[in-house]
Write a structure and sequence with these properties.
The structure is a homodimer.
Chain A lengths: L3 E7 L12 E7 L7 E10 L3 H5 L20 E8 L9 E3 L8 E5 L4 E2 L17 H14 L6 E4 L5 H12 L3 E6 L2 H10 L4 E4 L5 H8 L4 E5 L4 H8 L2 E9 L18 H6 L3 E4 L9 H13 L7 E5 L4 H4 L2 H4 L5 E5 L5
Chain lengths: ~350, ~350
């Protein structure tokens, strides 16, 4: 049994972008298990924009990670030691918020077996069949609720959430326009995922492109970004349109507050619904989401990309790729090899 | 039968506050009625913040009033001539958007008798039992939906909409805090209407007062104002709180756009729902609203104030009181005497 754990610990809260020294990579001894606990060897560690939020001492949906604590993160691992009746050695499990470390010790109540489907790689349970897939599914179907023929815009559309959100909207019969940050991503959205239109916000004026691609206005804005891109979308939202507010990544590295839509009067005039949501609110309905997403995966109706980066030691550097866009699919750390 | 009509015509679009010359008071001949039409002598003309919106050439929920057209406005009048089978001379009617004029000619389909209740003054059908009452009722019950014991904040709380919205929330069992612009209004809210707390935003720091009056945070923000007052409220909104967006009066006289909440990240973190609404969306459910409001009025459970200003010729000046706060209850013009 392992006796040493490697961990990323939050040493100080980042100001702006994450800098060397904000997180420290340390070794600590592994304690023995208590009754009901399992020792999980982490295989995949999820890197998500919300990691940056957790590092800040702001009022948020979970307590911030305390300075000195292991960095919080979700992931998948394998049980290597068990004092649980329910979980046995060798089980592949969702490790909850197991953290940025080689090994997590968790009570069985916080851990569930990965519901494997034949032919589906394990990384998919970090993405399309994991938290980001569920985020996309519930935000789009429960809040966005596009009707056939409606126009849906997704920002950060090539991201782990956005790419699934757009495809879910397509499966509802909507026209889907994606906004992404380079031509390769835009090409993937248009050619592989069947998006009806794509906008490279680094090369095009987003407002002009939306005017061209959304002649009937916008009925659903699946908002991941905030800032000027959000303003360009909101300015074209229709009467009774919906805006699932999933993320505001443009602001996560900023010191100040991230403002709402520049034209809030339009929210009034057009009777727009804006709803912030966090995937943990929907976990009581997770089975519904897995059933829908799993069905589409089995039918080949959803496509996705996973981007594992090898080595826990690279986590603090790799997480920054979420903000530069320098990744291709769901970003994760391969902490150890699959069994 | 009258042959001359006095009308306020929009001559140019106001820049900022309404200035002399933006509206012109003219006399025009009255045409003869067509089949199905009635001639309505206006008795009360409603003055509302939305009048200012209608004067601007911005994308809004109705077409703007065209330059050269009679200013749009709702009101109550009496039928003086009828070519309708349904409406007869002497009927008191809601004149729809009859306009700023002595007489309105309208098709019977646009006109409905005022559903009088015994002992209720006619002006009440311009306020608590009119559009502003319905606005308060549906915004609070359908979007805000306070549960017993929840904390509700209402801005512009002494206004025609806010004062009813707050009382409706009280009738749902909520704690209600009102924000208003002078001590007399605050006193009325606290002493007559039973608000649980009041804030004079001209004399107190709104954020500090909210901290004192809302120790458990804010569950519903009935938003009438926008700007810094809105930001102070949003900063204290709870998980899963709701924000019926009824108005943004702080911005109606501004040239630029009225921005959304300064801390939009909170809308995400706290999973806040924001919903713009306009009363015309709820008119199919008007009977439900009238039944509820009428029942409370009959039981003496709702209080309200009406502020009629005599003389159509004073409309252009009087409407500015909505923005200075220099009025006491629902502002309206008494165009002519009640029968």
């Amino acid at each position: 049994m392992p006796t040493v754990n490697r961990q990323w610990v939050l040493r100080r809260r980042p100001v702006g972008e994450i800098e060397p020294g904000d997180l420290e990579f340390i070794e600590t001894p592994l304690r023995a298990l208590a009754d009901g606990e399992v020792l999980i060897r982490m295989i995949y560690l999820s890197l998500d924009p919300t990691n940056r939020i957790w590092m800040s001492d702001i009022d948020q949906y979970l307590p911030p990670v305390e300075v000195g604590d292991v960095m919080r993160g979700g992931g998948i691992g394998v049980v290597e030691q068990s004092r649980s009746e329910r979980l046995k050695v060798g089980d592949l499990v969702n490790a909850g918020l197991g953290g940025w470390q080689d090994y997590a010790i968790a009570h069985e109540a916080m851990v569930n077996p990965v519901p494997r489907m034949p032919g589906v790689p394990l990384t998919a349970y970090m993405s399309v069949l994991g938290m980001t897939g569920l985020t996309a599914y519930f935000g789009m179907t429960d809040i966005g609720a596009p009707k056939p023929g409606e126009t849906v815009v997704v920002s950060a559309a090539a991201g782990a959430v956005g790419s699934i959100a757009g495809q879910v909207a397509k499966l509802q019969g909507a026209r889907v326009i994606g906004i992404a940050g380079n031509d390769a991503k835009c090409g993937w959205l248009a050619n592989e995922l069947g998006f009806d239109g794509v906008i490279n916000y680094r090369r095009e004026d987003v407002g002009q492109a939306l005017d061209r691609l959304c002649p009937n206005g916008i009925d659903v804005n699946f908002e991941n970004v905030g800032g000027q891109i959000m303003d360009a979308v909101v300015a074209r939202m229709n009467n009774f349109s919906r805006m699932p507010l999933c993320g505001l990544i443009s602001g996560y590295n900023l010191d100040g507050l991230t403002p709402g839509p520049a034209d809030f009067g339009r929210v009034l005039m057009k009777r727009i619904l804006i709803k912030g949501f966090i995937i943990i609110d929907y976990l009581p309905r997770a089975a519904e989401g897995f059933a829908a997403l799993g069905g589409w995966v089995a039918q080949g109706k959803l496509k996705w990309k996973d981007h594992p980066v090898d080595g826990l030691e690279n986590a603090a550097e790799a997480v920054k790729r979420l903000f530069s866009g320098d990744h291709d699919g769901k970003l994760m750390i391969r902490v150890s090899q699959e069994p």
